[in-house]
């Protein structure tokens, strides 16, 4: 098996994504967790670029690495949260977790080792943004609009709940 530049880039990006996810779960400060999440998001955007899905890579960076991360940071900084630390986990639990992760990685490796996928059309890399737009606004217009309605309802619900909490704190309710 020869190592191409694309394979090396994929392996580096995949390792950064996995390390970011592991750090996200293991760090204790919330702001550090968000930074680890940003590394994961950006490395996934790099994988999208390797797949010739530049539109998805840009959306990944703008929406997830930018907007979602900023919203999370604002949410963390604007809310009053008690920083109660949990008890440290034991070494046996960490070893069991490591064994479970390694077992899962081995199962995934066995599952895809001899996987043969049928050849795709050559039009995959041509006008992928146009293909996404046509599919989104023709075939998937109803789910697209329903998603926007669900997001709007969630936003209004969050505002109502936040307003209700403010009224309780002021003693008006």
TrEMBL record:
It is a multi-pass membrane protein. Coiled coil: none annotated. It comes from the Bacteria. GO terms for cellular component: plasma membrane. Its EC number is 7.1.1.-. Keywords: Cell membrane, Membrane, NAD, Quinone, Transmembrane, Transmembrane helix. The keyword ATP-binding does not apply. Pfam families: Oxidored_q3. The chain crosses the membrane at residues 6-25, 30-49, 55-74, 95-115, 140-162. NDH-1 shuttles electrons from NADH, via FMN and iron-sulfur (Fe-S) centers, to quinones in the respiratory chain. Couples the redox reaction to proton translocation (for every two electrons transferred, four hydrogen ions are translocated across the cytoplasmic membrane), and thus conserves the redox energy in a proton gradient. Belongs to the complex I subunit 6 family. This is NADH-quinone oxidoreductase subunit J. It comes from Bacillus canaveralius.
């Amino acid at each position: 098996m020869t190592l191409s530049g694309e394979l090396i880039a994929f392996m580096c990006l995949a390792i950064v994504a996995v390390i970011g996810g592991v750090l996200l779960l293991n760090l204790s400060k919330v702001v550090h967790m968000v930074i680890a999440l940003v590394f994961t998001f950006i490395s996934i955007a790099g994988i999208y670029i390797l797949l010739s899905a530049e539109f998805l890579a840009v959306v990944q960076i703008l929406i997830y690495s930018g907007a979602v991360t900023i919203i999370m940071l604002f949410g963390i900084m604007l809310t009053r949260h008690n920083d109660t630390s949990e008890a440290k986990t034991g070494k046996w639990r960490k070893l069991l977790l490591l064994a479970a992760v390694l077992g899962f990685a081995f199962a995934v490796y066995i599952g895809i080792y001899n996987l043969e996928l049928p050849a795709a059309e050559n039009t995959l890399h041509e006008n992928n943004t146009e293909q996404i737009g046509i599919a989104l606004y023709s075939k998937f217009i109803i789910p697209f609009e329903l998603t926007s309605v669900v997001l709007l309802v969630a936003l209004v619900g969050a505002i109502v709940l936040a307003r209700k909490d403010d009224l309780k704190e002021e003693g008006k309710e």
